[in-house]
Amino acid sequence: MRTYVIRSGIAGIVAAAALAACANRSVMPSSSAGIGQSALGGSMRQPETLVKCATSPPQYRWIYKGACDPHITLKRTGTNFSLAAYESITVKGSIGYTNSRGTASLAVADATDTNGDITTYEGKAFPKYTRGAKPFIYVVAVNQSDQIIKPIPRGSKPVLQSVITDARGLPGTTCGAALLSEEQNGRFVWISLPARFKVRGKTVTITQRAVPRGFEIPPKTPLYFGVNCWTA
Questions:
Q1: Is 199's pLDDT higher than 70?
Q2: Please, what is the end-to-end C-alpha distance for the chain in angstroms?
Q3: pTM for the whole thing?
Q4: What gap in Å lies between CA 100 and CA 110, rounded to an integer?
Q5: Rounded Cα gap, residues 124 and 61, in angstroms
Q6: C-alpha closest to that of 52 among 42, 33, 66
Q7: What pLDDT score was predicted for residue 48?
């Protein structure tokens, strides 16, 4: 399997997130720019029961046993998705414009890595995020098509946005995100994104507006994200 995030892409993500943070555009998006909580609660499909997809395919490498939507159809003009509640946590989000054509889809799943809900891969445990506050939720996105999916910036629409709610309350007042990178020597490293996002009630909205140069989502290749929160 090809490396799922090239090192230049990771560097671009960090740089883009830093610019967004400095511009103060990624902390709390306006309701018109992103999906917004009202849109997530209204027009989006709301799963009534917990759906899982803890198999390969649609997942590869480390498999998450939490909530899943295995068939998110990508639209060139933008796509919304919504996962059922898992361990009191719900993840809803949007993907902006992409270069997708014809039939292209993603599988998105989550896990907490606290109850054996992430499998081993080739005898190796999932690389835990250990820097700073421990993530309370991990999310994986897997391109199910044979296309190389590339985000396309368009106006004020976010490239990627996630609204995460914990019915029991988030473990802090500020949250951050990290992306798992595979280096050329096969070592996995978590890259913390510099942008910070304020908690509102029991919800945090995480937004990425810029597309890093060279960033793409190869076929059948997982992207792993971790979200952590702390009291600032």
A1: yes
A2: 40
A3: 0.81
A4: 24
A5: 10
A6: 66
A7: 59
Is the pLDDT at 33 greater than 60, yes or no? no
Question: Which pLDDT band, with edges at 50, 70 and 90, does 193 fall under?
Answer: confident
CA–CA gap between residue 141 and residue 107 (Å, rounded): 6
On average, the pLDDT of the chain sits at 81
Q: Using alpha carbons, select from 115, 166, 118 the residue that is nearest to residue 139.
A: 118
Torsion angle in degrees (nearest 10) through CA of 9, 13, 16, 19: -140
The pair of structure tokens assigned to 139 is: 């999310």
Distance from C-alpha of 189 to C-alpha of 130, rounded to nearest angstrom: 10
Instruction: Please provide the DSSP assignment of the chain as one string.
Output: ---SS-HHHHHHHHHHHHHHHHTT-SSS--TTTS-HHHHHHHTS---SS-----STTT--SS-B-S-EEEEEE--TT-EEEEPPPBTTEEEEEEE--B---SS-EEEEEEE-SSSS-B--BTTB------SSSPEEEEEEEEE-SSS-B-B--BTTB-SEEEEEEETT--SSSEEEEEEEEE-TTS-EEEEE-S--EEEETTEEEEEE----TT--B-TT-EEEEEEEEE--
CA separation (Å) from 143 to 37, 70, 88, 150? 25, 10, 26, 11
For the record, the structure tokens of 27 come out as 């902390």
